[in-house]
Amino acid sequence: MLNQLETIVQTAHAELPQLTTSEALIAWNSQYLGRKGEIPVLLRRVSELPKEERPAFGQRANELKQTLEAAYEAHSQAIKSAELAQALKMGALDVTMPGRKMARGRLHPSTQTLRRIYQIWADMGFQIYRSRDVETDEVNFQMLNFPPHHPAREMQDTFYTTNHELLLRTHTSPGQIRAMREFHPEPIRVILPGMCYRNEQITARSEIQFHQVEGLAVGHNIRFSDLKGTLINFVRRLYGANRATRFRASYFPFTEPSAEMDVECFLCDGKGCRLCKHSGWLEILGCGMVHPNVLRNGGYDPEIFSGFAFGMGPERITMLRHGIEDIRYFWANDLRFLQQF
Ligand code: PHE
Q: Regarding the domain with residue range 109-338, which homologous superfamily does it belong to in the CATH classification?
């Protein structure tokens, strides 16, 4: 039995240095030293020996086993450090390598323009009033002096809901009524930004949704000169102090008189180019004195109060500013477009 043990231990010793991985080491261990390994199995058979041989066998067996275990430990340490060295080499970090660029979110070009507009009006004492996107026909049209079959409704093709009384606002002007009813009888200086919707053919020049920023001032003795002065001031803050502006007579049912405001083309400085269609001027907003009927619908007595209103399109302003030729880019969510801003 002792011979048998010596042979096994010898073989085990001989195999050990050939093992190079921890897997092989584990297999070796369970073959020889594990609970069902060859050596423990043999040692359990000590009872088969005559009684007087047992102590000598036991002593020798323990010696052999301990040296084998020590050899195993030593080799196991060697393999572990070799494997660690290898892992470090494979996962080596080149700390001088330039980092990968993180994709960074940014503000939508319309949001950027909106925020500039808010800032300028805030500096001039106008607060933001948010009105609803879903409006009634009454507030979107009738209260603004568009009777049911008024031809001016044709200017704003409308998305109605199924009940035909509710619609998606076609402009931010219904917010004038909502603001007046809320602020009455106080004087008002607000801007009303928001999304507007029109049931139109989508083309490079028109979208079915777009922003507007409406403005409304109501108070005592507000005159057309206040409208002009305030809007000229706004345009100078937006486009620079030397930009020329002009007002052209226009028509809106809810303002009287009404005007459109042009700014001297900032691409050609008024000389005429493709952007301004060789007129030297860019149209940027509609405006006018709040119509007496509209004041009345908002709860203000037109004998005591007067006011002005205006409405501008941030997408149009952004397009002019950056030379964007197609309004469809704004909601197409094409990163190649958005990342330019
Ligand atoms: N609501 C008008 C439009 O959508 C713009 C406007 C607003 C004109 C306020 C005058 C006063 O075209």
A: Bira Bifunctional Protein; Domain 2 (3.30.930.10)
Average pLDDT over residues 299-320: 96
Range 325-332 average pLDDT: 94
Whether 140 lines ligand 1, by a CB cut-off of 6 Å, is: no
pLDDT tens-digit readout, 169-201: 999 999 999 999 999 999 999 999 999 999 999
Rounded to an integer, the average pLDDT of 48-75 is 86
Report domain extents, the chain: 2-90, 109-338
Does the C-beta of 265 come closer than 6 Å to ligand 1? no
Would the CB of 255 count as within 6 Å of ligand 1? yes
What's the chain's length in residues?
A: 341
- Give pLDDT tens digits for 79-108: 888 888 888 888 888 889 898 888 888 999
Q: Which of 117, 35, 65, 98 is nearest to 315 (CA)?
A: 117
Q: How far apart are CA 262 and CA 238, in angstroms?
A: 13
Tell me which residue has its CA closest to atom 4 in ligand 1: 171
Cβ atoms of residues 156 and 206 within 8 Å: no
**At how many degrees (to 10) do helices 314-322 and 109-123 cross?**
110
What pLDDT score does 250 carry? Answer: 97
Q: Please give the C-alpha separations between residue 4 and each of 8, 42, 59, in angstroms, as whole numbers.
A: 6, 9, 15
Torsion of CA 251, 253, 256, 260, to 10 degrees: -30
Burial annotation 280-300 (CB, 10 A radius, 16+ → b, else e): bbbbbbbbbbbbbebbebbeb
The token pair that represents 2 in the structure block:
């002792």
Note the pTM of the prediction, 2 decimals.
0.72
